[in-house]
Specification:
mainly alpha; about 70% helix; about 0% strand; flat
Length: about 40
């Protein structure tokens, strides 16, 4: 399950995130934060 979620986040960051540009005002980004939370 962990591998699937991380794969989905990575796919989002690779395929969809570039279309939205650098609009995120948070550091780390929401996807980076979610990935880190899942890994730990």
């Amino acid at each position: 399950m962990k591998t699937l979620l991380i794969g989905l986040i990575d796919a989002y960051r690779l395929l969809l995130s570039p279309f939205f540009g650098t609009q995120c005002r948070f550091y780390p980004t929401c996807s980076a934060y979610a990935r880190e939370a899942i890994e730990t």
